[in-house]
Amino acid sequence: MKKKLALPKPRPGVQQIVQQRTPSQIIRDKATRAALDAEKKSILAKANEYREATEWAETLSEERERRGISLATLADITGMQRAALQKLLTGQVVNPKLSTVQRVAQSLGYGVEIRLKRATR
Questions:
Q1: Could you tell me which of 51, 97, 107, 113 has the fewest CB atoms within 10 Å of its CB?
Q2: Is residue 17 part of a domain?
Q3: pLDDT value of residue 69
């Protein structure tokens, strides 16, 4: 037996409206909640994948700042345009060329390593 929730007492002068849901509304609401929960899991998984995919950019950006190298100087070293380099280091480039990432990484004293990992789906 489910315990009934006590509704808060209405404030003086405010009419409280309580609407009872039909069984079909309850079923629909549960289905909607399940769909939203599944969508939330998918969005969180994609956000985590994005974070992992752009972690290298954050590492290189922090290294550039730690060394006190300006974007303009790094652009000169790598032969890239400053704006392109800024987009790369802020994770705005979704699918950069490996050779580009390698060029920037090497200019900051890093190497690039590719690892395979089992998909989590």
A1: 113
A2: no
A3: 96
